[in-house]
Design brief:
Helix content: 40-55%
Number of strands: 2
Distance between the termini: 65 Å
Largest sheet: 2 strands, antiparallel
Radius of gyration: 18 Å
Strand order of the largest sheet: 1-2
Order of helices and strands: EEHHHHH
Number of helices: 5
């Protein structure tokens, strides 16, 4: 019998979630690369570019819907892309974008700090003049 674990589920203690509240309902958002890659297939657009566009100039509707869908899937596995789309309205668009960015930020591993500069490795090669 296969051993059941909570890894890669909503119960996984290593997953950090952002929270999005819409009309009194709280949704948990989390990213991993697989969720983004799978959502790209369904959404039919580049979601990594969408993340960058939210920060710079604004992602398009397909990217926002796809990013929300990808972020919702871990905690709400039965969520469809159409379900995600029905959550998006003009009055909550900024909140959704902020939650998407927070979920992505939480998904990034913390940078490892090298306390001993000698352990940092060799200096990068420099071009000679």
């Amino acid at each position: 019998m296969a051993k059941r674990t909570v890894a890669d589920t909503v119960l996984d203690p290593t997953v950090k979630y952002a929270t999005l509240e819409i009309d009194g309902t709280s949704f948990k958002l989390a990213y991993d690369f697989n969720a983004i890659a799978e959502a790209e297939k369904v959404a039919g657009c580049n979601l990594l570019l969408g993340l960058a566009k939210i920060l710079i100039s604004g992602a398009d509707a397909s990217q926002i819907r796809g990013l929300l869908y990808a972020a919702l899937r871990k905690a709400q596995p039965k969520m469809t892309i159409d379900d995600a789309g029905t959550l998006i309205r003009i009055d909550n668009l900024v909140d959704i974008q902020n939650a998407i960015l927070e979920a992505y930020r939480l998904s990034m591993p913390e940078a490892k700090k090298n306390e001993d500069p000698t352990e940092a490795g060799p200096e990068p090669a420099r071009a000679s003049a």
